[in-house]
Amino acid sequence: MANMPDHRVADTTARVVSHPAITRQPPARLLQRIWGRWQSFANDRLRQLLLDLDDDLFARADAAENSVMQEMYFNAMRLLRYQTDAIRTRFAAEITASVSKPAPNARKPAEGDDATSLESRLEELTLIEEDVLEQRLAVSTMTQRFERAHTLEVLLAQRRIEALRAQLDPDSSAARITLDARVLAEAFATSLSPMDLDLRIRLILFKHFENEVMEPLAGLFREFNALLVEAGVLPKLDLTAEVRRKQAGATQNKPAVATPEATSPAAQEQAQTHPESTATAPSAQAGPLSSSGKPLLPPGYDLEDAINRRSALMRKLPALRHQRRFNRSSDSSQLLDVRTVLELLEASERLALRSWRDSDLDRLPQRLDLAALLLEEAGRKGQSQAALRGADEDTVNLLQMLFDLILNDDHLAIPMRALVARLQLPMLRVALVDPAFFSSSRHPARRFLNAISRAGIGWSQAEEKSRDRLYAGIEHLVQRAGTEFAGDTTLFDELREGLDRLLRAEAERIRAAEARVIAQEQARIAAERTRRIVTRLIQHRLACAPPLPPALKQFLQTDWQQVLMRAHGDPEVWQCAFAVLRRLTGSGTGPDGSDLHGALANGLGLLALSPTAASATAAEVLAMWVEAESDGALATPSEGDTHEDPNAELAELTAAATEESSGGADQNLPSPAALAAAQALVEQTWVELHTRADKLVRCRLASITENPERCIFLNRRGLRIETLSRLEIAQALEAERLRILDDRQLFDRALEQVIGGLRAAPATTA
To answer: What is the pTM of this model?
Structure first.
C-alpha cells in the first residue's frame, strides 16, 4: 500500500499566522472557528483518501495473484467510485451529529488508559460477528495508536477547549464541541457500513484512513494549540509531567493488555476452556469477572444484599416451590452460588446467540428450559452434580413462567416474539442481580421490554424484515442487551432511548407519506358523500317532476349532475345550481328567461366548457324546457313535490343522504356490545384485520373523518389498508374479522397474571 506523500503530513502549524484580533473573539466564535476547521480538515482528507484508494486498488488488482482476488479489487473499486458521494455525505453527517448529543465531555486518558481501555473494549466484543469484531477492532486500534503517539498535543488541545466551553451556556451548540480522534474513525466506519465490501477491502480502507487522516491529525491539534495560545487560552499550560506519569503507568500495565491475537475466536475458546490460564484475580472493587474477563457486576455492587432482598421477595410466593426440580438442599457442597450462575448464564447466552443468529424470525425459537440450560452448562464445565439454590431456582422459574406467557401472547406479532425470546437470558441475569426487577414497574429492563412490545405491535408475519431498517435496529438493541449487560441496569435506559430514536426516525420517515394517504382518503370520502347527496337530489327532483322530454332528462342525469358535484364546495354556486334543477323539473320558483340561460351557462362553465360552448348548450336546454312548458308538460307539479322552500328541501335531502352514507339504513345491526366497542375505538389503536381480500394484516386507526364518520386504517409503513364506518367495524368485530390489539405494558400484564396464579395456588412446605 502506498504511503501518503510527505507534503500531506507536513506540520500544519506553519499555516498559523498572527491574528491580533483573535484575542478579542468571544469563546463561542473561537470554538465555532475551530469546529469549522476540524470539519473541513476531515472532509478534505477523506476526499483525497478516496482518490488515492482508487489508485491503490487498481495497482493491487493489476498485481493480483489470481483472477478471484483481481475481481474482488475491481469490484471494490467500482463500488467505491459509485458510492463516493454517499460515503462523503454520511461521513460529514456523522461528524456533524457528534455535537448534537447532549453535553459531551472531552475524552480524557485515565491512568493506564492505553493499557486497559483497548482491553475492556475488546472484551465487550466477544459475542459479535467476526467481521464486525475485526472492523471495530481496527477502529479501536488506530485510535489507541494515535492517542499514544500524540498524547501531549491532544491533551493540551482538549484542556484548552474545555476552558472555553466552561464559559458558555451548557445547552449552547458551541458548548457541545469536542475534538476526539475516535469520532473521526467511527464516522468513517459508519460511512462504509451500508456497503457490501469484503473484510479484506475494509481493512485496506482503514489502513488508508489511518495513514491519510489520523497521522496528519496530530498537526491539526498542534495548529489548534497554537491558535488557542495566541488567543490567550491557558497559554502557560504544561502537562508534560502528567503525560509522563500516564505513559509510565501504561508501561507497568502492559502485560495485561489484550492483543488482537489474544481476542481472536480461538483464544476466546481457549480462555473459556482453561480460565485459570488467562483470568486474573478480580479486585473487590471491580466485582467478579466471567471466564472471558468481562465484568459480571458493576464496581461497588453489594451482591449479598441483593441476594437477601431477592430471597425475601421469593418467600412471598410460596407456590413457586411447586416448580422446583433442581434444588438439592441436602447436598450443600454442590449448590451453585450466584456468581457461578451468572458465569453459566453468560456461556449459555453465547450458545443461544449462535443458534438464533440464522433462525427464521417468522417462527418462534424453541422454548428454553432455563434451569435445565444452566445445569447442562454446569455439566459441560465439570460440575455434573451441581444444583441450584432454592431462591435462585424460584427466580429462574418465575421468569420462565413470565416469558412462557409473553411468548404465547398473540397480541405480539411472531417476528417480534422471536426477538423478545432472545431476551430471556439477559433478563434472567437482571433478575438474579436486581430484586427490583420484579417489584418495580419503573425498572429500566422492564420498561425496555414493554417498549419493544409496543414498537413491534404493528409487524405482520409476511413483511420482509431483512429490508426493514427499524426491525434491524431493534434486533441490534436486543443483541446489545445480551452482550453488554454487566450488572448495571442503566444499560436498558440507554437501549430504550436508542429504541425511541429509532421510532422517531421511522415516524419522521413515513409522516409525509401518511399525511398524503390520509388527505387522499379524506378527499375520496368527501367526494363519495357529495356523489350520494347529488344522486339523491336528482332522483328526488325527477320523481317529483312530470314526465320530461328524454333529452332534458338525460341532460339532468349526466351534465347537470356533474355541475352539482363541482358546485358542492361553494354554498352560493350550490344554491344556484339546485335552483336551476328545481326550475327545470317543474318547480314554480327559480330563475326564468335570460336568468335561467345565464345560470345554465355559468354552471356548465364549471365543466371546463368554453363560454361559447356553454352558452350554446344552455340555449339548447332552455329551448327544450320552453317547448315542454309550452306543451303543458311542466304546468302541473307532481303531487310528491311538497317543498315550496328550496332551502328546506335541500337541507332535508342532504341530511337523508348523509344518514344513508353513514350506514343508518343498514338493518343488519350487530350486538350492542360490538357497537359499543366500535364506538370506543380511538386513533392510534392497533387492530388485526381480515381485509376484503381475506388477508390478515395489522394496521392502526390513523384518522377519523367527520360527516360522514369514517375510520382510516394504515399499516406501519403508512399505506392504507381499509376505510370503515363504525357500523362496519362493529360487524367485523362480531364476525371475528377484526381484533383489537393490546400493546400496553406487556411484561407488567404477564407479571400480574403469573403472580395472581401463584397466589391462588396452594402452597406446601418445601
So the answer is: 0.50
